[in-house]
Amino acid sequence: MPKVRRLFAVLVLGSIVLGLMGPAAAGIPPGRYAIGDSVMLGAKDELTGRGIKVNAVISRQFRDAVPIVEQLKAAGRLRRKVIIHLGNNGILIEAAQCNRISEVAGSGRTVYLVNLKIPRSYRSIQNERLAVCAQRRANTLLIDWYHYSRSHPSWFATDGYHLTSAGQANYASLIATKTA
pTM, whole model, 2 decimals? Predict the structure, then answer.
Protein backbone atom coordinates (compact mmCIF):
# COMPACT_ATOMS: atom_id res chain seq x y z
CA MET A 1 0.00 0.00 0.00
CA PRO A 2 2.77 2.57 0.76
CA LYS A 3 4.05 2.27 -2.85
CA VAL A 4 0.58 3.01 -4.21
CA ARG A 5 0.26 6.09 -1.99
CA ARG A 6 3.71 7.30 -3.04
CA LEU A 7 2.89 6.84 -6.71
CA PHE A 8 -0.43 8.64 -6.23
CA ALA A 9 1.35 11.53 -4.48
CA VAL A 10 3.87 11.84 -7.33
CA LEU A 11 1.09 11.87 -9.92
CA VAL A 12 -0.88 14.50 -7.99
CA LEU A 13 2.20 16.69 -7.52
CA GLY A 14 3.06 16.37 -11.22
CA SER A 15 -0.46 17.37 -12.20
CA ILE A 16 -0.31 20.41 -9.93
CA VAL A 17 3.02 21.54 -11.38
CA LEU A 18 1.77 21.13 -14.96
CA GLY A 19 -1.40 22.95 -14.06
CA LEU A 20 0.54 25.90 -12.65
CA MET A 21 2.67 26.08 -15.80
CA GLY A 22 -0.42 26.18 -17.99
CA PRO A 23 -1.09 24.03 -21.01
CA ALA A 24 0.98 26.09 -23.44
CA ALA A 25 4.10 26.26 -21.29
CA ALA A 26 4.02 22.58 -20.33
CA GLY A 27 4.92 21.38 -23.82
CA ILE A 28 7.54 24.01 -24.66
CA PRO A 29 11.13 22.74 -24.71
CA PRO A 30 13.32 24.62 -22.23
CA GLY A 31 16.42 26.51 -23.26
CA ARG A 32 17.51 29.14 -25.75
CA TYR A 33 17.61 29.01 -29.55
CA ALA A 34 19.45 31.70 -31.51
CA ILE A 35 18.99 32.58 -35.19
CA GLY A 36 21.53 34.85 -36.82
CA ASP A 37 23.91 35.75 -39.61
CA SER A 38 27.71 35.94 -39.87
CA VAL A 39 28.01 38.13 -36.77
CA MET A 40 26.36 35.47 -34.62
CA LEU A 41 28.19 32.73 -36.50
CA GLY A 42 31.48 34.28 -35.40
CA ALA A 43 30.41 33.92 -31.77
CA LYS A 44 28.82 30.47 -32.16
CA ASP A 45 31.35 28.67 -29.92
CA GLU A 46 31.00 31.31 -27.20
CA LEU A 47 27.19 31.15 -27.34
CA THR A 48 27.11 27.35 -27.43
CA GLY A 49 29.43 27.31 -24.43
CA ARG A 50 26.80 29.30 -22.56
CA GLY A 51 24.08 26.76 -23.38
CA ILE A 52 22.53 28.50 -26.38
CA LYS A 53 21.70 26.47 -29.50
CA VAL A 54 22.86 28.48 -32.52
CA ASN A 55 21.51 28.47 -36.07
CA ALA A 56 23.57 31.08 -37.91
CA VAL A 57 24.67 31.37 -41.53
CA ILE A 58 26.44 34.00 -43.61
CA SER A 59 24.22 36.65 -45.25
CA ARG A 60 20.96 35.49 -43.64
CA GLN A 61 18.14 38.03 -43.82
CA PHE A 62 15.55 38.79 -41.14
CA ARG A 63 12.78 37.38 -43.33
CA ASP A 64 14.59 34.00 -43.29
CA ALA A 65 13.90 33.64 -39.57
CA VAL A 66 10.13 33.42 -40.08
CA PRO A 67 10.04 29.93 -41.67
CA ILE A 68 12.70 28.67 -39.25
CA VAL A 69 10.55 29.66 -36.28
CA GLU A 70 7.41 28.26 -37.94
CA GLN A 71 9.08 24.91 -38.72
CA LEU A 72 10.58 24.53 -35.25
CA LYS A 73 7.25 25.31 -33.61
CA ALA A 74 5.37 22.87 -35.87
CA ALA A 75 7.89 20.16 -34.97
CA GLY A 76 7.61 20.91 -31.24
CA ARG A 77 11.28 21.96 -31.08
CA LEU A 78 11.02 25.74 -30.65
CA ARG A 79 12.60 26.50 -27.31
CA ARG A 80 11.23 28.77 -24.59
CA LYS A 81 13.63 31.62 -25.47
CA VAL A 82 14.21 32.63 -29.10
CA ILE A 83 17.05 35.03 -29.92
CA ILE A 84 17.09 36.79 -33.30
CA HIS A 85 20.09 38.83 -34.49
CA LEU A 86 19.44 39.67 -38.12
CA GLY A 87 19.27 42.79 -40.26
CA ASN A 88 22.97 43.38 -40.90
CA ASN A 89 22.75 42.43 -44.57
CA GLY A 90 20.85 45.38 -45.99
CA ILE A 91 17.30 44.25 -46.70
CA LEU A 92 15.01 46.23 -44.42
CA ILE A 93 13.11 44.44 -41.68
CA GLU A 94 9.36 44.53 -42.23
CA ALA A 95 6.94 44.85 -39.32
CA ALA A 96 4.93 41.86 -40.57
CA GLN A 97 8.02 39.62 -40.34
CA CYS A 98 8.74 40.65 -36.78
CA ASN A 99 5.08 40.33 -35.82
CA ARG A 100 4.90 36.86 -37.35
CA ILE A 101 7.89 35.61 -35.34
CA SER A 102 6.34 36.90 -32.11
CA GLU A 103 2.91 35.47 -33.01
CA VAL A 104 4.30 32.04 -33.87
CA ALA A 105 6.40 31.98 -30.69
CA GLY A 106 3.25 32.65 -28.68
CA SER A 107 2.70 33.64 -25.08
CA GLY A 108 4.71 30.76 -23.58
CA ARG A 109 7.97 31.96 -25.13
CA THR A 110 10.07 35.10 -25.18
CA VAL A 111 11.58 36.49 -28.37
CA TYR A 112 14.76 38.54 -27.94
CA LEU A 113 15.68 40.88 -30.79
CA VAL A 114 19.35 41.91 -30.85
CA ASN A 115 19.89 45.30 -32.46
CA LEU A 116 22.75 46.12 -34.81
CA LYS A 117 26.20 47.68 -34.57
CA ILE A 118 26.83 47.79 -38.32
CA PRO A 119 28.43 50.98 -39.71
CA ARG A 120 25.90 51.41 -42.52
CA SER A 121 23.32 54.09 -43.27
CA TYR A 122 20.44 51.68 -42.65
CA ARG A 123 21.50 50.76 -39.10
CA SER A 124 19.30 53.37 -37.43
CA ILE A 125 16.27 52.30 -39.50
CA GLN A 126 16.81 48.63 -38.65
CA ASN A 127 17.36 49.36 -34.96
CA GLU A 128 14.24 51.53 -34.82
CA ARG A 129 12.18 48.78 -36.44
CA LEU A 130 13.51 46.22 -33.95
CA ALA A 131 12.75 48.53 -31.01
CA VAL A 132 9.21 49.23 -32.25
CA CYS A 133 8.55 45.52 -32.68
CA ALA A 134 9.75 44.82 -29.15
CA GLN A 135 7.51 47.59 -27.79
CA ARG A 136 4.50 46.35 -29.76
CA ARG A 137 4.67 42.68 -28.77
CA ALA A 138 4.21 41.50 -25.16
CA ASN A 139 6.47 38.46 -25.60
CA THR A 140 9.29 40.35 -27.35
CA LEU A 141 12.26 42.16 -25.80
CA LEU A 142 15.17 44.14 -27.24
CA ILE A 143 18.82 43.40 -26.44
CA ASP A 144 20.71 46.63 -27.05
CA TRP A 145 23.96 45.38 -28.57
CA TYR A 146 24.51 48.72 -30.31
CA HIS A 147 24.79 50.82 -27.12
CA TYR A 148 26.57 48.07 -25.19
CA SER A 149 29.30 47.70 -27.82
CA ARG A 150 29.69 51.02 -29.60
CA SER A 151 32.47 52.34 -27.34
CA HIS A 152 34.58 49.21 -27.80
CA PRO A 153 36.31 49.29 -31.20
CA SER A 154 38.60 46.43 -30.15
CA TRP A 155 35.58 44.11 -30.18
CA PHE A 156 35.24 44.51 -33.95
CA ALA A 157 37.19 43.63 -37.07
CA THR A 158 38.15 46.42 -39.46
CA ASP A 159 34.67 46.30 -41.05
CA GLY A 160 33.20 47.59 -37.77
CA TYR A 161 30.69 44.83 -37.08
CA HIS A 162 32.20 41.33 -37.37
CA LEU A 163 33.63 40.27 -34.05
CA THR A 164 37.15 39.81 -32.76
CA SER A 165 37.71 37.20 -30.06
CA ALA A 166 37.09 39.86 -27.40
CA GLY A 167 33.94 40.90 -29.24
CA GLN A 168 32.74 37.30 -29.44
CA ALA A 169 33.15 36.85 -25.69
CA ASN A 170 31.37 40.12 -24.87
CA TYR A 171 28.58 39.51 -27.39
CA ALA A 172 27.91 36.04 -25.98
CA SER A 173 28.09 37.32 -22.42
CA LEU A 174 25.51 40.05 -23.08
CA ILE A 175 23.12 37.67 -24.83
CA ALA A 176 23.51 34.95 -22.20
CA THR A 177 22.94 37.46 -19.37
CA LYS A 178 19.91 39.12 -20.96
CA THR A 179 18.27 35.78 -21.79
CA ALA A 180 19.10 33.94 -18.53
Answer: 0.85
